Amino acid sequence: MSRQCVSGLLVGILGLIGVTQAFGREICRPVLTVTEVKFSKWQPPSVERTWTAVVSVDASRCAPNSGGYFEIGFARQKENGMEAEFQEQFIWRSPSVEVSVDFWFDEAVEAYWFNRVPPCPCRNQATARLPEQTEAQNRGERPTMTRVMPK
Questions:
Q1: What is the pLDDT along the chain (151 residues), one digit of tens a residue?
Q2: What does pTM read for this prediction?
Q3: Measuring CA to CA, which of 61, 113, 121, 138 is 20 to 30 A from 81?
Q4: Strands 84-93 and 96-104, how do they pair?
């Protein structure tokens, strides 16, 4: 190959890498951890038990005051029936959230896992606000103009 061909190929590859990085965005997700789990005893007349968990949320990579949805998957055991897997959707907020699911008296949770945790807006990509806008919002006033300041 000629020197011009090799040079052109290298320039093209470097340009493609630069364009890919420009369009690529950082994806941020909260880190969720189950810290406490309780399973209540069944009480008549409902004959239901409640599985309750505290989910700790590390949203340090997310924009301030972020929140979002997440799913927990469950493997359910039933004393006189078929085992089943299902998902329940919850809402996360930092620093923690309590979640609960009702089960019948003859059911138990064999296993649980985080099934889906969508991304959150990244902290370093959050919109910068002018100081006067932040003060107005703290007083409960609506800002008259929103400007985005480059970092």
A1: 565 655 555 555 555 454 444 455 789 999 999 999 999 988 788 889 999 999 999 999 999 999 999 999 999 999 988 999 999 999 999 999 999 999 999 999 999 999 999 999 998 875 444 344 444 444 444 443 333 334 3
A2: 0.64
A3: 113
A4: unpaired
On the 0-12 / 13-18 / 19+ scale of CB atoms within 10 A, 147 is: exposed
Query: Which among 95, 118, 75, 91 has a CA at the least distance from the CA of 35?
Result: 95
Lookup: tokens for 66: 């972020």
Cα–Cα distances in angstroms (integers) from residue 90 to residues 5, 9, 74, 97, 118, in the given order: 56, 50, 13, 9, 12
DSSP structural state of residue 94: S
Report phi then psi at 36, rounded to 5.
-145, 140
d(CA 30, CA 130): 27
In the numeric block, the tokens 């919850």 are attached to 90
List the structure tokens of 22.
Answer: 């420009």
Asked whether the beta carbons of 81 and 105 are under 8 A apart, the reply is no
